[in-house]
Specification:
The chain has a 4-stranded antiparallel β-sheet. It is of the alpha+beta class and 218 residues long. The protein folds into 2 domains: 102 residues, no CATH class; 63 residues, Arc Repressor Mutant, subunit A (Orthogonal Bundle). Helices cover 56% and strands 11% of the residues. Helix 5 crosses helix 7 and helix 5 packs parallel to helix 8.
Length: 218
């Protein structure tokens, strides 16, 4: 969707600003909806719409607009929305300030890639920091500055997102799911799941498994 008079940014233009490209990819993962960028002036009424989030970024004398439209929730709670909003706020700070970030630091890109590619692998901030030759404290600070959320929060949420999919589409026991996600004990998994989604794994399965299967087969 493009506002009248505005022009979509090409993939090449987005990737010419590596930090923006990293944010677009990360936002797409968090929302599972549509993230698109365009050049032009935002429509005030469109910006006030509650259906999406929008950020205006100054770039080479122009205004670049980033729009995030969540996918339909199908009745599920939008429990990753706080992380999405924090990332948008971090993007605004890092890309719209006096010294716009050119690209995400390599260590942050590595940490983000490890979390999102291998969420079920046992890992800690200290272990990842060791892989990139940084202290855990410094990597954690940089990670939160760029993404808006802590390493621990994003790792937990990626794991619980993965668990939601298993709960909705299989009949595997919760204890089995837990043991295959970072080696968590059942009690640890249950605490993490409730903290992330606001409900227990069993309740999530009871409420959404049939609905998800019906949606996929429709």
């Amino acid at each position: 969707m493009t506002l009248t008079g505005n022009h979509p940014l090409s993939t090449e233009e987005i990737h010419a600003w590596p930090a923006l490209a990293s944010y677009v990819a990360a936002l797409s993962r968090l929302t599972k909806g549509e993230v698109y960028c365009e050049r032009g002036e935002p429509d005030p009424d469109f910006l006030r719409s509650a259906a999406a989030w929008r950020v205006a970024l100054p770039h080479d004398g122009e205004s670049w607009l980033v729009h995030v439209e969540p996918s339909p929730a199908h009745g599920k709670p939008a429990w990753r929305e706080p992380s999405l909003i924090r990332m948008l706020e971090a993007m605004q700070v890092n890309l719209a300030g006096n010294r716009p970030l050119r690209e995400w630091p390599q260590a942050v890109r590595t940490a983000w890639s490890l979390i999102t590619t291998h969420p079920c692998r046992a890992m800690s901030l200290a272990e990842v920091a060791g892989c990139v030759d940084l202290s855990a404290g410094y990597l954690g600070e940089q990670f939160e500055r760029i993404t808006g959320s802590s390493f621990k929060r994003i790792l937990r949420d990626e794991r619980m997102e993965h668990a939601c999919g298993i709960l909705e589409t299989t009949s595997r026991r919760v204890s089995e799911i837990a043991s295959n996600i970072g080696g968590l004990s059942l009690s640890q998994f249950n605490r993490c799941f409730v903290a992330a989604t606001g409900m227990s794994p069993s309740e999530w399965r009871r409420r959404f498994a049939y609905r998800e299967n019906a949606r996929l087969s429709a």
